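[step 3/7] inverse_fold.run input=structure_tokens len=74
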């Protein structure tokens, strides 16, 4: 897990690690990603996602799932 002590966008020291269910949309389709851990900055609203969080979000994305299915070997 990536550790951030300051916000990469505004330099705020109030950035903190949170765990939330994200609601995202992809090509007009809304989907939810439960229990995503990321750093949130209360000052500028920046969200910083670790590679693990990004892959979890992608795994829940309908667009990503579609690509994965079509990429399966025959
Ligand atoms: Zn910030």
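[step 3/7] decode complete -> sequence:
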């Amino acid at each position: 897990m990536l550790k951030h002590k300051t916000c990469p966008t505004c330099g705020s020291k109030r950035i903190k690690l949170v765990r939330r269910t994200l609601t995202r949309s992809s090509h007009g389709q809304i989907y939810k990603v439960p229990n995503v851990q990321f750093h949130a900055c209360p000052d500028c609203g920046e969200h910083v996602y670790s590679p693990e969080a990004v892959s979890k979000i992608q795994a829940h994305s309908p667009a990503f799932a579609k690509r994965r299915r079509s990429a399966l070997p025959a």
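[step 4/7] annotate
The chain has two helices and three strands.
The CA atoms of residues 23 and 32 lie 4 Å apart.
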